[in-house]
């Protein structure tokens, strides 16, 4: 059985190797934390640009001012994580659980009335810009509107209603 200290040391080593990898140093390696249990981890200011955090447990993690640009956070559990000041540009947040996370505005809705059972639209405010995720779609509100207008007629109404709901709730206090 590994101790908490051993796990912390392993994480420090992964972060140090990732930092080297980011600078192009051949001694470094890309951080692969896919499925890692990082619950309540202290990652304040950590440079995790482009890291694989797919499916990671980041519940309660301190990610304040962390660099997560381009990180793969698909299916990650970010409940109660502190994301204040985190750089999430181009991060993949598809199906990430952002419930009660601090420092990030998001809205999501799912629907099942038109043959796409379980389809979910997520809107996230990243560095002041609204970014929307749905299936393989990732883009701005105007790009989402264009995507919906180019879709099959039978899907337009429910997708438009969902888009409007997510957009309005994402920007409710503004």
Give the H and E element order: HEEEEHH
- Give the overall silhouette: elongated
Termini distance?
A: 50 Å
Percent strand equals 5-15%
Averaging pLDDT over every residue, what do you get? 87
Taking the sheet with the most strands, its summary is: 4 strands, antiparallel
CATH topology of the largest domain: Pectate Lyase C-like
**Contiguous uncertain segments of 5+ residues:** none
Short structural description:
With 174 residues, the chain is α+β, with helices and mostly antiparallel strands.
Would you write up a description of this structure?
It is a single chain. The protein is an alpha+beta fold and 174 residues long. The protein has 2 domains: 1-103, E3 ubiquitin-protein ligase SopA (Pectate Lyase C-like, 3 Solenoid), CATH 2.160.20; 105-174, no CATH class. 26% of the residues lie in helices and 14% in strands. The protein contains 3 helices and 4 strands; from the N terminus they run αββββαα. It has helices at residues 4-22, 141-149, 153-170, and strands at residues 105-111, 119-126, 129-134, 137-139. It has a 4-stranded antiparallel β-sheet, with helices on one face. β3 (129-134) and β4 form a beta hairpin. The longest helix has 19 residues, at 4-22. The termini are far apart. 32% of the residues are buried. The model has no long low-confidence stretch (mean pLDDT 87).
